[in-house]
Amino acid sequence: MTDTPFDLTIRNGRISTASDTFHADIGVRDGVIAALGPGLPPGRRDIDAAGRWVLPGGIDSHCHVEQLSGMGIMCADDFYSATVSAAFGGTTCIIPFAAQHRGDKLPDVVADYARRAAEKAVIDYGFHLILSDPTEQVLQRDLPELIKNGITSFKVFMTYDRMKLDDYQLLDVLEVADREGALVMVHAENNDMIRWVARRLVERGMTAPKYHAVAHTPLAESEATHRAVALARMMDVPILIVHVAGLEAVQVVHSSQALGLPIHAESCPQYLFLEAGDIDLPGLEGAKYCCSPPPRDAASQQAVWQGLTDGTLQLYSSDHAPYRYDASGKLPKGDQTTFKDVANGVPGLEVRMPLLFSEGVLAGRISIERFVALTATNHARTYGLYPRKGTIAVGADADLAIWNPERAVTISTRMLHDNVGYTPYEGKTVRGWPEVVVSRGRVAVEDGELKVERGSGRFLQRGTPEPVLRQRLNGNPNALVRKYFTNSLSRQG
Ligand code: DUC
Ligand code: ZN
Ligand code: ZN
């Protein structure tokens, strides 16, 4: 078999991309898809995918790994456990955050995350920034430099006392993103509405985890979403609203898009499969389900399904924010922990794709092509990785997941590979599972075993996000800020 042109051939699979489904073989050489078609010659390694669906490996563009939260709590997953867990769930690329806390020097923050990821990651990864301290140094020197080095997106918070930017700072950040060619991701919740309600709840002894969902009222989300849209509109720059949870927030995004505004949005499994009622458990158990925004009600779940189906929401990410149900994470004050102290976030890296495959595709809510778009292709396009990642095409990285659509799996903490110690989806049975996962041509997961080495994942320098490129073509030269303060939409990125 020494004269074979391929290191790996995957034959007889049913392949889906974001636009097409067809039967073909895939020939892989040097980590890249080298051929696609019927009857390819055998590879040094041959995988028969008859009866299986061969899909692009997932890209999870919103997850928190080895990151200190705004409250100073370290995530339970490091770059090894997080990337192993991702791979077992069919994800071959992640974009977690390098998080700046106030006073941190941005280049040092990035260097620190880069070093830890390079030592441990088993699949490819990029970074977004989290900006909490947009000083002149950050805005004028650090961000332009980091964007040139392939970190072309950053998240900003409208809530959390220690992370939030005020509207003036948000405008500064949007201006830099526009000038330098980056995409701003917005956590849209009104800090003062949440603080005001939370304080009164605590004063009245209503401290159980379920009150987290009361304090984080859907109005705080929809108000901030609306304000973020207005700020982006004034600056005429695209933004991406992350983790959209509530019906009204979906409506704000939808109506902005109907006006032709470049508003992009993401949602997550917890807003499809959990409800606020899940937080209402005895004792502090509900802390396991506390995330921000919190899961809402059936009408909001339905709105999120609709948004994912009709294109209002382009991305489906895990927002994996892993905290153990103990003093290291969810319960920093033991049995005295109030909902205000609980570390915000739920795990989901490994089950993100199986949940949507089962409840979206096999249950008939979305097509397989839409599944691919929502879990892989749109992430690559949105964050400057396309067409290297996120599709099955000659020349693309061979990042693939071979799904058995017949296999039923009952989700349990025991079978997962993260370090969280619980899953919000314990006991839920899904149909369909990614049995073989290929990362840059290397079989990463097979027969329930990890086949790749710690530290073998690679950092991805990302290009200019497509929303930014589109805005340069379609932006409004008469938008207030463009008309008076900038000359052109066609800047270098
Ligand atoms: N926002 C996130 O994106 N993840 C976890 C917590 C939060 O507030
Ligand atoms: Zn957030
Ligand atoms: Zn998050």
TrEMBL record:
Keywords: Hydrolase, Metal-binding. Its cofactor is Zn(2+). It comes from the Bacteria. Belongs to the metallo-dependent hydrolases superfamily. Hydantoinase/dihydropyrimidinase family. It is an enzyme of class 3 (hydrolase). InterPro entries: Amidohydro-rel (IPR006680), Hydantoinase/dihydroPyrase (IPR011778), Metal-dep_hydrolase_composite (IPR011059), Metal_Hydrolase (IPR032466), Metallo-dep_Hydrolases_sf (IPR050378). Transmembrane segments: none annotated. The gene is hydA. This is Dihydropyrimidinase. Its EC number is 3.5.2.2.
